Amino acid sequence: MTSQRSDHFARSYSIQDLVSDVSGTLTPTDRKIAMLVAEDPTLIAFGSVSDIAGRVKASRPSVVRFATKLGFAGYSDLQEWVRKGLIRQLSRPSDRVRQGSPSRMSRQAIIEAAMGAADALVDGRVARLAAPIAGAKNVWIISGESSRAGAYVLLSGLSMIRPGVRLVEQHTVGRDICHASEKDVAVVFDFARYRRSSVVTARAMAELGVPIVAITDSPLSPLASLTPDWCELKIPAAGPFDSSLPAVAAAEILVTEVVQILGDSAREHLDRLEEQWRATETFYER
Fold this sequence. Notes:
The protein starts with a helix and ends in a 7-residue tail after the last helix. By secondary structure, it is of the alpha/beta class. The strands form two sheets. The chain has a five-stranded parallel beta sheet, sandwiched between helices. A two-stranded antiparallel sheet has the order 6-7. The protein has two domains: 3-89, Winged helix-like DNA-binding domain superfamily/Winged helix DNA-binding domain (Arc Repressor Mutant, subunit A), CATH 1.10.10; 107-279, 3-Layer(aba) Sandwich (Rossmann fold), CATH 3.40.50. Helix 11 (148-159) links the parallel strand 1 and strand 2 (165-167). It contains 15 helices and seven strands.
């Protein structure tokens, strides 16, 4: 899939949206398939090509061609997109409360959330994502609401080892974009349901030539289409809300890698910071 199509998929919330876009090219068989899956998208989410073909009395290749007409690489690609859409639909906090979601994450879920971030940022990938952060003149951090904890951890950690680290707030977007350049890097955290402000800001930075590092949750994320430098995190539910643990873990892993890349420069920055903490009596001591 092209990045343009990926962006379109991320912004389309139903199979009906995609069918509507190509309605002029659909055959009578395509329309039967479209009517079936529009009535119940779970047929695609959990059914096989043979299941769909049998329901509409069509051939298996016809079902695969229907998927490719919508812009997908094949049926399994379409199926994965529909499944993610159903998950996204059930990701609203109000829906989770109504459905009686657990009020706490289990210990195992907490462990798996942190380990998932570590697995997503294996040595080669974390080095590739950290390199532009270490070498940039300025680091602009962009975040949605549910990923804000990770953004703050990255802001705090990077600010202690290098200068020029800023968190982009909604009310400062225009001003910050005016000061961004190709020598900078923008690190964006966001997960479904993607905040319009974070996507628009990251896209504006990319259009200015600012390299983007994206921490997101899917190849179909509108952020993944902006850059080759991105990683996919699995975001479990924590009661009615999405867990912040994967974003926080990813931020901590990135900071550690940036420290390794900067070496003496990071250590000298920390030494100066310690001197200022002592001079200003930052910490309470008995």
